[in-house]
Amino acid sequence: MLKRCATWLVALCIVAQSSGVRASEACAGGVVALTFDDGPAPATSALLDILAREGLRVTFFVLGKHVEQYPDLARRIVADGHAIANHSYTHPDLTTLPGSEIESELRRTQQVVLKVTGKKVVFARPPYGESNDQVRHQLSTAGLKEVIWTVDSLDWTGVGAKEILRGVEMTQPGGVVLMHDTSPQLREALPLIAKHFRDNRICAGKLAPTTKRMPVGNWYPRAFYVHAERW
Ligand code: ZN
Questions:
Q1: pTM here?
Q2: How far is the CA of 191 from the centre of ligand 1 (A)?
Q3: Which of 57, 120, 125, 146 falls 20 to 30 Å from 109 in CA-CA distance?
Q4: Are 155 and 187 in contact (CB under 8 A)?
């Protein structure tokens, strides 16, 4: 009995060690956060299918008015294991609004996401990445952490799937990539991105606060303090 027990423990030990090695090697190429803005929209459904097939978990920066319009899609985003975040209610440039309207854009989205999905949102991306001290003050008052991006995939300009992939390939470990639910080329790009991640042992990660300064693409001297971590 003692021998069998010891054998079993050794076997368990080997399994535990090898799975530990596998786990650390799995993201040896780093972690990158893919973020999808402006949904949910009818196109979100096909994206969710592809993400599920490719085993990618991402963050959706939703508009409150679209959550109101497509509550089932908002619920599916959460049920599929993705993160949901605040991208305002109507997509205005928040830097042009008085404080009370910025507060309302953020609060209404927080409320509808909570009502529809049961999730309390903690990250927000101001539309167009446009921000200033007043916007940041309102974000922090609402308990939201500002997220811009380290790489803009340029999917919104109509570039092809290969160009979108190139943006993701340029992304440094910990980086945050901007994409959009409504980009038709993104459906074609996602399998290429998933293959690039598999080939290079990169993991699609979640957003997490960091003390490290994350520069916004080529938009010097803009920066933010959120990076990608493993789920
Ligand atoms: Zn947007």
A1: 0.89
A2: 23
A3: 57
A4: no
